[in-house]
Amino acid sequence: MADTIKLNTDDQEGFVLVDKDRKKSISEDELSKNANGGTEMMKRGLYERLADDIKDEVQIICSRVREVDTHRPVILWNHDLLGDPEVEHLKDAEKRKRFAKQVFVSHWQFTTMHLGLGVPYDESIVLKNAIVPIEKHKKPDDKINLIYHTTPHRGLEILVPCFEALAQTHKNIHLDVYSSFNAYGWGQRDEPYKDLFKKIEDHPQMTYHGYQPNEVVREALKKAHIFAYPNIWQETSCIAAMEAMSAGCIIIAPEFAALPETLANFGFTYQWKQDNNEHARTFVNVLDNIITGMPQHKDFLDGRCLFQKMYADEHYSWDGRIPQWDALIRSLITRKS
Predict the structure, then answer these.
(1) Cα angle value 43/24/11 (rounded, 5°)
(2) Which strand (E) or helix (H) includes residue 102?
(3) What pLDDT digit, counting tens, does each position of 296-310 carry?
(4) Alpha helix ranges (H) inside 50-193
(5) What global pTM score does this model have?
């Protein structure tokens, strides 16, 4: 086995693992090395799928720039939002020269960076996130299952009281919550949500599952009818929504940040409200209408969800995304040589 060293020995600054013969292309930083969130799923999924002859011929940095390799083309794969301190360097044209290409995960995200930081079109490309399509399956028909499967700060505090209100009149609904900052190794950040988690645990029509590996969540999505997502956090892209689309779930979410782009006019969306009380009132009305109408509109909803799944499986599959990454990397290698 080749020896490995740290280019930077200060863990607070992050590091890049280096073989004495070859350098691994995907860089790790202090926040991502122990995390299993969406960004980590993407970079590990990409690395394992890239062709062997190119996978270590470039350096791919996910969002946080710590070490830049001057001997290979460097791709900055940006998952962050405008306003994050980690992206401020992009307004400096000289600093942008370190990167052979910048990859953004949605057109909404790139547009904000272009308008907010002056990132040029010709230095950038949008390559959306990707998923493994969820296998065909049959939904249970004994009750209506709702799911929330992302971190708690993205809207769980709106969902829970809305569900409590609906559960009083809809005895056939159940909510499964897969949510914890343990996905990123930040268990201490769950503290402000402990009372909310307890409320879920104590409710007979809700189940709190905490953090679970992606394969467990994917199985849960097969049993879910509705992805209930009253989102209050700007998404640059939404892998949870992509997987819910592939699972044939009805998606209820606001028209906020990159969600409309990700959902591609599928799902049942509503105008986002900045005030959480107004947001809750809008969300609960949409959710109530969907739940109430599901029995009589089953054929319509089944057809819509099937079309949605076909779209997601085609447009968000790794099988379609890898050729785009392959073409990009080969073009940069050729340009470098």
Answers:
(1) 80
(2) strand 101-104
(3) 999 999 999 999 999
(4) 93-96, 107-117, 156-167
(5) 0.90
